[in-house]
Design brief:
The complex is a heterodimer of chains A (95) and B (391). Chain A has 95 residues and is of the alpha+beta class. Chain A has a domain of 65 residues: 2-Layer Sandwich (Alpha-Beta Plaits), CATH 3.30.70. Chain B is of the alpha/beta class and 391 residues long. Chain B folds into two domains: 243 residues, Thiamin diphosphate (ThDP)-binding fold, Pyr/PP domains (Rossmann fold, 3-Layer(aba) Sandwich), CATH 3.40.50.970; 134 residues, 3-Layer(aba) Sandwich (Rossmann fold). Chain B is 41% helix and 18% strand. In chain B, the strands form three sheets. Chain B has a seven-stranded mixed β-sheet with strand order 3-2-4-5-7-6-12, with helices on both faces. In chain B, strands 9-11-10-13-14-15 form a six-stranded mixed β-sheet, with helices on both faces. Chain B has a two-stranded antiparallel ribbon with strand order 1-8. The chains are: A alpha+beta (95), B alpha/beta (391). Chains A and B meet through loops of A and helix 9 of B.
Chain lengths: 95, 391
């Protein structure tokens, strides 16, 4: 997309709103659905990766130190990582 | 040189679909459309038409298969009627929103219940907001001609919209008429190859019918609306070019003996032909009466319609469908709305009749016109008059 979605006019759309750019759903921010965000205390983290495995948005990635962070552009704040983390690294905080 | 041949109109529609070199037919048989798709099935089985014939388990599937077919750039045809059109309903919106050039014959049939296989316009009117181009024809020749035009209109890259050709079930579909079918060479000269601009193609993948969040839905719908309105230009051009090639001309609003008329009767579909006989009779008696028919129902021809009624005193509209509990017939309520902003507008009288195949005879139309003129003088508290109901 040359323009952001909220800048697209009706004239910019392809016929029938067909999408010609593969994978452009990655440009769709789902982070603004969130009311709570995950906050981490990595001192307890054992780097098991369960949060990444369970994340339904696949928005968790491993940072340089090997800890798993949430990409807040996509994270919908569902809290599944918080529920599944065996060492209680994650708490959910109001946005 | 083409010759007039007596044939059932449904068969003639099958023949023109064959002449149009259709690639895919996906259909489910339903009275009174059955003979159209039966004939096409025969043509494909006999090897006369090289097309993929998809026999499906319902009309919902028929239209869904048409979506996929049209999306590949294949020339796609289907036909249905009444309940079948209703079963397709949700998919109709998808076809127009995705801008897929599908051509569909609708043999207009009254909706259940009570179960009726006979014609009225309740099925057609239920589709008026689906975003399809809707054209009404009155006889077999018009059905054949407009089916051919429909492929060219639908596939024109300035349009890319599905088109419904509405013909009255039985009164048109099952009648044997002298039909002038064009030669293959004439059809080939008139109808270019389908050149769908963004087809499903593994080398150039696209995604169709995608998710449209609030941030883009309004833009998508406005683009669709602008396009449907603008399609009228192409429709007029195609009819003009059809006229040049075949010497039969079609207009969005057709007038019959409208010159110097004070009163016009408005009809759509096959009953217009009976109405013409009434007009002839009443004109013979010195009454200044004419008939107008709306051929192009969607996009609605506001300009041509307003022009056609600008000098008259009374407009009597016959609807063959009821908008239950609403302002009367769907056609009349749109007519009223189209004329509301005009400075010189006629008195408008709404009649509903001809439901579920009930005939309106020459005398019946005379009664409608006479009582319509009387109501125009005296006024009426009714939203509409129902014609021919037994008290």
């Amino acid at each position: 997309m040359t323009k952001k979605e909220d800048e697209l006019t009706w004239k910019d759309l392809e016929i029938g709103a067909v999408i010609t750019e593969p994978g452009n759903a990655s440009q769709y921010r789902t982070g603004d659905w969130r009311t709570q965000k995950p906050v981490h205390d990595f001192s307890r983290c054992i780097k098991c990766g369960l949060c990444m495995i369970y994340c339904p948005e696949a928005c968790r990635f491993q940072n340089k130190e090997g800890y798993f962070e949430a990409d807040l552009f996509y994270c919908k704040g569902c809290g599944i990582c918080y529920r599944e983390c065996p060492t209680m690294v994650i708490t959910m905080e109001e946005e | 040189m083409a010759q007039r041949v007596g044939m059932e109109v449904s068969v003639a529609i099958g023949e023109i679909v064959k002449l149009a070199n259709t690639d895919v037919v996906s259909a489910y048989p339903i009275t009174p459309q059955t003979h159209i798709v039966e004939h096409l099935a025969e043509l494909v089985a006999d090897g006369e038409l090289d097309a993929e014939y998809i026999p499906v388990e319902s009309e919902h599937s028929a239209m869904s298969a048409c979506l996929g077919s049209a999306a590949t750039g294949a020339r796609t045809f289907t036909a249905t009627a009444g309940q079948g059109l209703e079963l397709m309903h949700e998919v109709l919106y998808v076809a127009s929103s995705m801008r897929l050039p599908i051509v569909m014959t609708v043999a207009n049939r009254a909706l259940s219940s009570p179960l009726s296989v006979w014609s009225d316009h309740s099925d057609a009117m239920a589709c008026r907001d689906t975003g399809w181009i809707q054209i009404f024809v009155e006889n077999g020749q018009e059905a054949v001609d407009n089916t051919l035009c429909a492929f060219r209109i639908a596939e024109d890259n300035n349009v890319l919209l599905p088109v419904m050709i509405h013909l009255d079930g039985f009164h048109v579909s099952h009648v044997i008429e002298p039909i002038l079918l064009p030669e293959q060479s004439q059809v080939d000269a008139f109808l270019p190859k389908n050149n769908y601009p963004l087809p499903l193609d593994t080398d150039k993948p696209v995604a169709m019918g995608d998710f449209g969040p609030p941030v883009i839905y309004t833009e998508a719908k406005w683009a669709q609306e602008v396009n449907l309105r603008k399609s009228k230009e192409t429709i007029l051009k195609v009819w003009q070019e059809f006229g040049k090639s075949f010497s039969r001309y079609y207009k969005p609003v057709e007038c019959y003996r409208c010159e110097d008329a004070d009163t016009l009767l408005l009809t759509m579909g096959s009953y217009s032909e009976t109405a013409m006989t009434t007009i002839d009779k009443m004109r013979g008696e010195g009454k200044k009466i004419g008939l107008i028919r709306i051929r192009l129902w969607r996009p609605f021809p506001f300009e041509e319609f307003r022009q056609a009624v600008k000098d008259i005193k009374t407009l009597i509209v016959l609807d063959r469908a009821i908008s239950f509990g609403g302002p009367g017939g769907p056609v009349c309520s749109e007519i009223r709305s189209a004329l509301y902003s005009q400075n010189n507008r006629p008195e408008i009288v709404s009649f509903i009749g001809g439901l579920g195949g009930r005939d309106i005879t020459v005398a019946g139309f005379e009664e409608i016109i006479n009582s319509g003129m009387e109501i125009a003088e005296t006024g009426s508290d009714n939203e509409f008059e129902i014609f021919g109901v037994r008290e």
